[in-house]
């Protein structure tokens, strides 16, 4: 697929106006206030993984409405000192899988919490373990359209709240330095990491790659792939529901979260990405922290000939180097 979005010189300065609802901040303040009533941790159980150099726990924490959310918590074996924590969010349709699947951050010396996606996990990967008991509002079968007609009903209101609560949960776990907590994700996970950056003011860093939910209205005009295609398909059947749907999606817009962020940020984007069009990532990057009166360190790596995979392993290495520098941690032996 050739490049299909704006030319790179335009992307580098792309700052689109926002149709941001007046009640955006109150909506999220009230949502999180309700979730914060419960203690974060429900259970922490050590599990055997067959890995000698990594220790792993099956964690259950309380997310939206106090619902139990599952996660894998791992850290390098024989490292008793408090470690910076990376909270990772998985992609669309994926669950937390098996505990030995994602070891990069643990091998780099971090504590690592991988959050399960409620009501997802059946499209690819190795499954999930967190149901969504609230998925009963009008909308289609996919997460992107569950509860599409009202902000309070939408799946992502619950999932974003879970993501914020995951940060609270990891900070309550032993062996974690709560002042050095980082949000990481690709695609849907990138959108969640960006939302966390906008909702958790003392986050240490955010690593956001090919983020979903950024520039939503433009993405719906550009692509029928992935989650945006599910929204378009729903609206093709429910003609006249556009106004309600756009109102809901405006409460989930990643660029609005980016404007409220303060943490240092590392972005990645493939310029041929037809799943999450690059203009959304650039809009979030260019307007990042503009409402906070801060100027956090930020960088964006663009991959002109890549699609949704972006820079893949090359980009991960850049993430590792950047985060080690931001947090002041050792990069290991040369």
From TrEMBL:
Residues 121-146 are annotated as: Disordered. InterPro entries: AB_hydrolase_fold (IPR029058), AXE1_dom (IPR008391), CE7 (IPR039069). Residues 129-146 have a biased composition (Low complexity). SUPFAM superfamilies: alpha/beta-Hydrolases. GO terms for biological process: polysaccharide metabolic process. Substrate binds at residue 92. GO terms for molecular function: carboxylic ester hydrolase activity. Residues 1-324 form the Acetyl xylan esterase domain. The active site is at 187 (nucleophile), 273 (charge relay system), 308 (charge relay system). Pfam families: AXE1 (PF05448). PANTHER family: CEPHALOSPORIN-C DEACETYLASE. This is Acetyl xylan esterase. It comes from Streptomyces davaonensis (strain DSM 101723 / JCM 4913 / KCC S-0913 / 768).
């Amino acid at each position: 697929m050739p490049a299909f979005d704006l030319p790179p010189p335009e992307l580098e300065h792309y700052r689109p106006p926002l149709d941001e609802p007046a009640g955006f901040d109150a909506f999220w303040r009230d949502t999180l206030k309700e979730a914060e009533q419960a203690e974060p941790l429900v259970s922490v159980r050590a599990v055997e993984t067959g890995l000698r150099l990594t220790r792993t726990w099956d964690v259950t924490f309380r997310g939206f409405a106090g619902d139990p959310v599952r996660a894998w918590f791992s850290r390098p074996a024989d490292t008793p000192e408090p470690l910076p924590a990376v909270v990772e969010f998985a992609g669309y349709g994926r669950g937390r899988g098996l505990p030995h699947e994602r070891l990069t951050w643990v091998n780099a010396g971090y504590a690592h919490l991988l959050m399960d996606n409620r009501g997802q996990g059946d499209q690819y990967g190795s499954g999930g373990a967190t149901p969504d008991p609230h998925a009963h509002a009008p909308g289609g079968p996919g997460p992107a359209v569950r509860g599409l007609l009202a902000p309070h009903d939408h799946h992502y209101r619950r999932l974003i709240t879970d993501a914020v609560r995951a940060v609270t949960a990891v900070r309550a776990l032993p062996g974690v330095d709560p002042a050095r907590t980082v949000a990481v994700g690709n695609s849907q996970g990138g959108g969640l990491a960006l939302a966390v950056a906008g909702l958790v003011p003392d986050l240490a860093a955010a690593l956001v790659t090919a983020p979903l939910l950024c520039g939503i209205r433009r993405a719906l005009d550009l692509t029928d792939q992935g989650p945006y295609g599910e929204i378009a398909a729903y609206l093709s059947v429910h003609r006249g529901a556009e106004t309600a749907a756009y109102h809901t999606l405006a409460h989930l817009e990643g660029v609005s979260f980016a404007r409220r962020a303060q943490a240092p940020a590392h972005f990645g984007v493939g310029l041929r990405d037809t799943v999450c069009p690059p203009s959304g990532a650039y809009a979030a990057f260019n307007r990042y922290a503009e409402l906070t009166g801060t100027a956090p360190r930020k960088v964006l790596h663009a991959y002109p000939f890549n699609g949704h995979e972006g820079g893949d392993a090359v980009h991960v290495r850049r993430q590792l180097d950047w985060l080690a520098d931001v947090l002041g941690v050792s990069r290991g032996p040369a």
